[in-house]
């Protein structure tokens, strides 16, 4: 079964406590928390105070995705805010290996995200050091975009790289995941599905999460 990580970026922020309670009572495995700085991506989202409150509202994994420049400046703060997994973008890190070491030294699992135009082969030299790869299947910055089909081939390539190295690394897909395309995504080798609008805009979010979970 894939792990399901609903993206709180699509939640109703006027009813955030209710949405957190819904996720707690659902089959969701992780809370996916997108942090945007308006520089690395052309949008702003939420930051440390919101994550601190979400952390208090759940015992599930807080999967924090930093779409920001200079993430090393804030890594310790996100650890204190309660991140279990901290993912940084390959494209935003001049010294990626150092960023990964910093994340792990603070007791978090380390993820690396790659944009749609970035080749997964560029991860080869850090694969053994990370716990998760987040493949962006849309251009980062906004929810509600359509899945980029080329991502399926990138999943297959990355899965082959991980398996040949004998590593245990999650492949997370972020962007445009729907009930219709999720089976192909899982079949290609992904094991974590980030779903925003698909979950929070559904008539029955809990049932939608369960349907995604049942794909395995």
TrEMBL record:
Gene3D superfamilies: Aldolase class I
Its EC number(s): 5.1.3.1
Matching InterPro entries: Aldolase_TIM (IPR013785), Ribul_P_3_epim (IPR026019), Ribul_P_3_epim-like (IPR000056), RibuloseP-bd_barrel (IPR011060)
Catalytic residues (UniProt): 34, 174
Transmembrane segments: none
Enzyme category, top tier: isomerase
Family (UniProt): Belongs to the ribulose-phosphate 3-epimerase family.
Listed name of the protein: Ribulose-phosphate 3-epimerase
Species of provenance: Flaviaesturariibacter amylovorans
Lineage, uppermost ranks: Bacteria, Pseudomonadati, Bacteroidota, Chitinophagia, Chitinophagales
